[in-house]
Amino acid sequence: MKLKRQYFDVKDVVWDSKLEYKDEVLYLNKEEILKKIRPLMKNVTNVDLEIVKPGEDARIIHVLDTIQPMVKIEGSGKQYSGFFSHPKTIGEGITNVLRGFSIMESAPLPWDDGSASSGLLYPRDAIIDMTGPIKGFTPFSETINLVITYELVDGKSSEEYDNDIRLCGLKISEILAKLTVKNTPNEEETFSIDEINPDLPNVVLVWQCQNQGVYSNTYLYGHSIDNLVPTLLHPNEMLDGCIVSGNYVWPAFKVPTYLHVNHPILLELYKQHGKTINFKGVIFSRSHNPTNWHKERSANFCVKISKYLDADGLIMAWEGGGNAAVDGMLTIQQAENIGIKTSTITFEFGGKDGTEGVLLVDDVAEADAVISGGSIEKTYELPNVKRVIGGKYLRLNKESGGYFPPSNKSITFDTTTQFYCSGNQSGHSKLFGESY
Amino acid sequence: MGKLKAVYYINQFYAGIGGEEKADIGLMTFDEKKGPAIGIERFWQGEMEIVKVISCGDNFINNEDKFKSILPKIKKILKKVNPDVFIAGPAFNAGRYGVACAKLCDYVKRELGIESVTSMYYENPAVKMYVKNNYIVESAETSRGMKKVLPILSNLSLKLAKKENIGPARLEGYLPTGYRYNEYHDKTGAKRTVEILLKKLNNENYKTEVPLRGLEKVSPSKPFKDIENAKVALITTGGLVPKGNPDKLKQAFSVTYGKYNIGNLDSIKKDEYESIHGGYDTTIVNQDPNRLVPLDELRNLEKEGKIREIHGKFFTTCGIGTNVENSKQIGRKIVKDLEKENVDIAILTST
Do the domain assignments include residue A284? Predict the structure, then answer.
């Protein structure tokens, strides 16, 4: 399987009367874009678009998912296969990627208990600051972002809101990526793991994603992964978008589609392929397995597939918090027990100064190579900002009745859980717990 | 400006007094340099000098009363000399020497406000006792590592003397104190996750960023074969207590346990017992306490002769948020009780 990614750099995005990509600039005609996606707006209304750029004194709130705009121009299937298409296997041919640019979805999903928002699994306000103290937590302070904001039609189901929001995002991503077609890419990169060097160790990535129902979901080829037992993916399938996020529960721990498609660990393994390792594939599994029995079965399947692939090493990475950590740690334990060496990355606790309580929500003695993604139990004061995209008020602490402070004002959080991608689950960021 | 000043602590061996046979010797002070104090100065290139060497026998200083008796003298010396830093060791993996170095450093820093630093092997028992509030430079296991550790110790001690900011453990060479703060690495998490796996695969040294908890492995005792002749006790961490919780056991973060008579009961009555556990839904237990402490079924086994007898009391605590040290203490006390009563088997039910 060979995939060529053609990167088209986006140095600027401007509103215009035309819709065009030229000389590294995206010219956007808002009306034309909205007209094209209008048939998809059945349960959402007043959809709007805003451009946010790196270095801006800006905050984006109610962030749901972020998408890498790309389009397949050669090879089987569509980008993000399974959405707007049959689930044809992707990962081969040529895909055009708008580099340095994202499509972001923002909406205040309802909190009523009749919907998917009951209990702890409700859409929590994910916050991005383009500058200031938390800028480094998210990859999107360094990309130009086209934020889609939605209002919701009253009385529709969680599934319906969720569906429209995602389809609009994916469609806009396609419309804009298609603008590259007649241009020359800034760079090309070919991805293949066909060639194996028998002298190098074999390594697999286990990528474990959240699934607990609507609003805390992950899609594989367009369908939710409930009931998924661990399965084997070619890394190119991920590069082409076989995994799409539908996870809005914990801002720190959710992994946007953009990072499934540009998975930092997967890309690192690709860099090492043929040099220091053979990258043998991605084992994709569901986290938040409901019982210990399911967890054990999942860990066993991950390790079984690794064994089939003759793996010497395994990287365990997961989306989500405590429940997922148990799944991940069990997998590490099973792998190490049969001699497959492992490493992993996770956020840590430790309180204000690192000395309070235990650092990890779960760990096993076999997990002896744990990279820190940073502590979530640290206090951060967000400054006043000039511009907010997504709404006038933050939506916080549903479990204690709700707290709705103005979104442009300074506010202090004593954990990082509201900050988008701050859990560093896929290793995108340099944030870590430094020990003194 | 004059040179910075350091005071250096070594044991009787490094002071050239003698080995084990001299370990009871008391406090000595020297104006001339001895042991590692000779080697370390050259790294400072004239910026700092050792103005006093003090020494004690390892046994002497590890006796708590004797240690206390010399503190006023040490305080007097240090007040007089007014050093910029106090250095002790390296003690490598020598237990008594390690504890002496660390507790002197701790005293000097805490009580006298003088910066201090020592050095030893990471498994030296003193590390666990003192590392949280003291700089302990990591050394090799034996004195063969002296050459390697002195430059690191000298560098950190000079920085401390100059009151410079001390960087993170991995860069300065001291053992992590447990304090951790969010910072930015020069490489992404993804890159480091791959790199550490490569090190493991290539059998190179690697260091986990999130430290291991060092969970102790508890080996199970040998299977008890003669069950018909066994005296069986019931223990629970599910918080079952007589109604009203007469001993005021804690609902969480337990520090103790209760034991209650079941000697003449066939089963535990729901009106008389309740669970006070703060971490699970206790409805079912409160409806039938025997589902937590299975006295009814065990009584049947006793009647059938499958076991000899049931111990007359059951033990109970709340297993929630209880730290490992308290858990161990509770466990040890219960075991003592069980041994005294010649219990052969214990059934522990958790929730």
Answer: yes
Q: CA angle at residue B325 from B322 to B331, to 5 degrees? A: 80
pTM, to two decimals: 0.83
Residues from chain B contacting residue A432 (CB–CB below 8 Å)? 182-185, 189, 192, 209
Structure-block tokens of residue B265: 């009961």
Structurally, chain A folds into a number of domains equal to 1
CA–CA–CA angle A362, A368, A369 (5° rounding): 100
Give tens-digit pLDDT for A367-378: 999 999 999 999
A368 contacts in chain B (CB < 8 Å):
208, 212
Structural domain for A33, as ranges? 3-413
Q: Which amino acid is at A220?
A: L
Q: Which of B122, B138, B181 to mutate to test the interface with A (most CBs of A within 10 A)?
A: B181
What is the side-by-side strand order in the sheet with A387-389? Answer: A128-129, A58-60, A387-389
Mutate to test the interface with B, among A259, A269, A345, A431 (most CBs of B within 10 A): A345
Instruction: Judge contact between B139 and B117, C-beta under 8 A.
Output: no
Helix-strand-coil percent breakdown of chain A, rounded to 5? 20, 35, 45
Which ranges of chain B have pLDDT less than 70? 1, 215-216, 321, 323
Q: How far apart are CA B140 and CA B91, in angstroms?
A: 10
Taking a contact as any Cβ pair under 8 Å apart, which residues of chain A between 123 and 182 contact chain B? 136
Q: Which residues of A touch B198 (CB under 8 A)?
A: 272, 276-277, 313
Alpha-helical segments (H) within A240-377? 257-261, 264-272, 292-308, 322-337
Do strands A12-15 and A25-28 pair parallel, antiparallel, or not at all (unpaired)?
parallel
Per the CB < 8 A criterion, the answer to whether B253 and B320 are in contact is yes
DSSP B131: G
Residue ranges and CATH numbers for the domains of chain B are 4-172 (3.40.50.2300), 227-349 (no CATH)
